[in-house]
Specification:
Helices cover about 35% and strands about 20% of the residues. The protein is of the alpha+beta class and about 725 residues long. The two termini are about 45 Å apart.
Amino acid sequence: MEMKLFSLYRNAADTSVKMQIKVIGCLNGFADSDISFDEYTSLKDMFGGLSKALKSSDFIVIAVDSSIYNSTKLKLMTALSLKKEQNEAVLKKLSKLELDESAQEKNAAMPEGATVFVSVDGINSGFAVKKGSQTIVMIPFDDQRLDSVLKRGLVPYITNGGRLNSASEPEAAPTHEEKEEITSETTSEISEQEMDIAAHTLNILKESDVKVAVNGNTNATVMREFAVGLDDFDEYFTFTPHIEDRGDYNVTDYTAQMARSAKALSSATLGACISDIFTTNDGCDYICISVATDKSALVRKLYKEEGEDDAHLIRIACEEVFALIGEKAMGNNSVGIEIAQDEAPKADKKLSKKTKKAIISVIAIILVAAITVGSVYFVKQKNNNKEPQTEPPVQTQPPETTTEAPVKADTMSLSKLMRFELVNGIKNEEPETTPVETTAGAITANEPQTNEAPKDPNAVPSVITVNGQEIEAKEAIARIVTAETDSGFNVETLKAQAIITYTYLKYRDTNWRISNLTIADNYTQEAMDAVNEVFGHYLTFNDKVAFTPYCRMSAGKTANASTVFGNSFTYLKSVASASDKQRDGYKKEVLLTADDIKAGALAFDSTIEFPEDVSKWLTINAHDTAVSTGTGYVEKITVGNKEVSGVTFIYDIMKNKDLSSPCFSLSYDAESGTYTITTFGDGYGVGMSQLGADNMAVSGTKYDKILDQYFPGTFLN
C-alpha cells in the first residue's frame, strides 16, 4: 500500500514532534515502504500537497493540531466535496461533556458514510473515508486523544481491511433461558435498503447456480418479508420445517445444527438459520446466524446494542444472514466460528470484507488483546497480512517467467479488437485474393473469392495465423487466452474464455487468420489444459456462428449490445453479474478539466463547438439504469454541440484518460470548473464478464452454464 502522511500544526512544539514519530511508527508497518511524510504550517500549502498525493497514493493520512482540528476538518470536507452528517457515536460521547451546541456540531460533523474513530471523550475524533479508489484519513495531533484514535480506530481499521470490528469484549457464557420468541408482526415496514440486500444475494445465487434451505423457525419469516416482490426468490430459497430439538447443545452448536438440518431436509447447496434471542449470564441479549455447507457450518453471534429492541436485532440478523449466504455462494472468506462436522467449534482466521454488528469469535478477541502502538507489532502484522505467495503458472518451453508479450503499438487485446472490428469492419486476412462482400452476423466481413471447392464450415483448423505468424491451432488459442486472463482464474473460466476466443475467430470467417492482436509469448499449462478439453467447440445462434464479446467486469449487470454498440443481437442482452460489484476497481473516479475535454473532443472531431458555460459541455442523454435510476451504461451523451455514444466518449474522445467503462455518471464542480467521471466496471460491459464468470466457476459452475448465463439462447456446438 502506497501511504502518504501529512501533518498540519501552528507550531513545532516538542509534543507535536513526538506525536508525529508515534504516528509514523504505527503506520510504517502497513505501508509497502517507509511513509512519505510532509509537514505544513498553513492550510493552503497542505491542500497543494494533498492535490499531488491524490494522484499517486492509495492511503492518505492527515494529522492536524488539536487547536485547528475542527476548522480544518470542515474545510477538508468542503474541498473534497464530501457531504456532512452528524455522527451519532460522537454525539453520544459528547453528551457527557458540557459543550455548547456549536462545539458539539463541529466535533460531531463527519463525512457521510465515513468510518469514524471516536476519541476517548468524542472531541477531535478521527475518520476514514473512501474517495474514488483512495482512502483519506484524518486524525488529531492531540496528546490526550491520539492514543485512543489509533488503538481503537485507525489501527484496527487497517488491520481488518478497511472496517472496524466492534467486538471488544470477551464472549460471556449464555444461559439456557431463551427470550420470548419475537414474531414478524412486531417488526416495522421493510426498508428499500433491506429489500436491496435480499435482491443482491438472490442475484449472486442466480449467477452461481446455488440454492439455499432456511430453517423455518419464527424469526426466519422476516427473511421472506425482505424478499417481497422478488421474482425467482422461491426458486432459490426453501424454508424447511423447524424440527430440531436443542437438547444439550450450546447455542452456537444448536444454531449450526439447525442450518445443517435445513440443508439435509432439501437438495440445496447451503443451509441457513437465524436463532431465537438468548441472554448471557451478564444480561446481554444476542442472536446467532449460521450458514452450513457440506463440510462445516459457520456461526456468527450478534449482540444487541444499547437502546436497540428485539425486532430491530432480528432484522439486522436477517441482513447478516443474507450477506453471509452471498459470501458463501461466492466462495469468499467469512468471519465467524467455523464448526466442522463432528468437531468442536473453532475460530475461523479468515476475515471478510463486511460485518455490521459485533461478531464475537476467537480471532476478534485475539485482535483486541494484541493491538498496541509499537512498531514491532505492526511490522509483524504487515507480514502476516500479505497474501500467500502462489506458485507461478507452468509454462511451455522455453521455461521463462513472463507469460504475456508486451503490448505493441499496432496490437490490441482481443476484447478491444472485437469492438474495433464491429465499428470498422473485419479486415480481409486472405493474401492475394479478390474479396467479395459477405456478412457474418452483424459485422461486415470479406471472404476471399477463389476457384477452390467450398470449405467445410465445421472443419477444425490445424494452424492459426496470428499477426502473420503460423502457430499450431491449440497453442494459438492457449496463448490468446493466457494474454486475456489472470493467472489465478479457475479452469472453468479458462474453458469459457477458450470457447469464446475460438468462436470469434470462426465468426470472422477469414480462414483462421487474424492481425493486430496482442498474444502472449508463451502459454500457461492451465490455459493449454482448458483448450485441450474444449478445442473445436463454439457458440451458434439460429445455426450461425455467434458474436462473442466480453469485458473484465460488468457494472453489476451486463449491457444490451444495442445500448453500447448500437447493434442489436438477440443473445447479447443485459444479464445479472452482481458479484462484480464486490471486486477491486469496480468504481473509479477521474477528474477532467475543461482543457482535457476540449482537447479530446477536437482531436476526435474538429467541428465540435463549445458554449461559454463549461457546465453545459457534457450532458448524458440516455442510459440503461444498470447501476441505479440515475446511472447506467450510457447510450447517448452530448459533448459540446455533438451527440455521441457513451462508448465513443470513453474509448475515442477521452481515450487517454483511463476511463474504465461506458457505464458512468458525471458531476460538475463550478468552483474548479472540472467534471468528475465516475465509472462502474471495467470494459464495455457486453457479453461475458470475466470476473463474474470466474466467481461462478469458483462456486462450482461449469463452463457451459457460464456461457448460458452470459450468452442466453446460444447453442454450444
